Amino acid sequence: MHGSSSRIVGGDLASVMTREGDKVSLICQTDGKPDPTLTWTKENRNLSNPKQGRKHTHLLTLVREEDAGEYRCRAENPHGSANKTFRLVVQSTPNHMGTMVPLLVGLFLLKVFFCFLLILATFWFSNRQKKAPVMREDTTRG
Asked: What does the domain layout of the chain look like in residue ranges?
């Protein structure tokens, strides 16, 4: 029986950049006779049971920051083995609430300041009217 060593098509290293919430497919295409058995690991932790075949996809749905790291597919048959490493970089999505909070606090403080000015002006005008001299007509002359 004649065979060939396992190999992974497309090199042994790939960098993948994505954003939080995206879907990512890590594709490992293998070659060899007999068909290699492929396993996926993330930082030396098994992610799946070994599978036989030529093309395997590790799918990550709704990617989170903690999904970032090194993923490795390993193709192996009786004639040899090969590895491919995927470096997954996850960019965090901007937190719009982080920019909204200072804006909302500022608007609230501005509203409080204007209410204070309105109360102060009302108080000042009401006191001014109380102190103003009242002009009366003298009805005793005549």
From this structure: 4-91, 96-131
Q: Are 90 and 20 in contact (CB under 8 A)?
A: yes
80 DSSP β-pair partners: 77
Distance CA 53, CA 37 (A): 7
Q: pTM, whole model, 2 decimals?
A: 0.63
Tokens of 110: 């501005």
User: What is d(CA 51, CA 42) in angstroms, rounded to the nearest whole number?
Assistant: 16
Task: State the amino acid at position 118 in one-letter form.
Answer: L
For 18-30, what is each residue's pLDDT tens digit?
A: 999 999 999 999 9
Pick the CATH number of 4-91 from 2.50.20.10, 2.60.40.10, 1.10.3720.10, 3.40.605.10: 2.60.40.10
